[in-house]
What we know:
22% strand; 9 helices; alpha+beta
Amino acid sequence: MISRRRMISILAGGAALPLFGGAAFGDVKSWQGVALGANAKIVLDHPDADALIELALLEVSRLENIFSLYKSGSEILQLNALGFLTAPSIEFVELLNLSDQINRVTGGIFDPTVQPLWALYAEESSAGRSPTIAQISSVRESTGWQHLSYSLDEIRFNKTGMALTLNGIAQGFIADKVAALLRKNGVKNVLVNTGEINALGHAPDGQAWDVGIANKPEKIALSNQAIATSAPSGTLFGNGNVGHILNPLTGGSEARWDQLSVIDKSAARADGLSTAFCLMTKEQILNVDGAHQILFGAPVST
């Protein structure tokens, strides 16, 4: 099965707790597992850490039931199967609203209706082939953000053959939701990693949370910030020369950067932007407004 490999590794948090000493940080607990197919971690500093982690995991499971492409019965799978979804969860509509904003500021590069193209590449790659120009052109007829309509009452595809993936933004969205839930329950210091990271407050040593990014020697200090990293080569199709982040405007994989990170207040926004920015020129990226910071990887020859 093709999986999406994330490029962020935590250099603080649960793995570093022994260095701080258990007595000094008796309220710090950590959990590690999987969320939306990505390695996940929660590091929490609170007297009721165990109960709060359980609460956070229930939230992760609830949101996976909305956004997972692999969890049977999820709302997104129902939408993709039927072409419509009545009475969607408010979080589904909320994330579509954010996706719409990112679609507009990236000139259509971020487009969750790219799923039929992704499925084409995956199917052909499994058979040892690459999709033909004719196949790509045909499948692109079933894509286009403008052909999706949504409200609190219904989400609907307005063309046949459409399908949605929110894998380029949902991991960040879940990190935000878990962090917000914990904050609501009195947590001031927590690191939530659901494939993308939301870091509240500070680490157990009283300093900002240190996050390391693959292929970057320096650590990133985060406090009340989020970070997302995308790498087109994290999953490769065909003979290993086609990255998994596809350009909905052309149907190809035209990566501009080998990896790229975005720091923002919102992990969801950072996630969606980092996905799109991998396919955009530096000039295009810098023209996108917002209070975010960009960490460029190496440019890819085009």
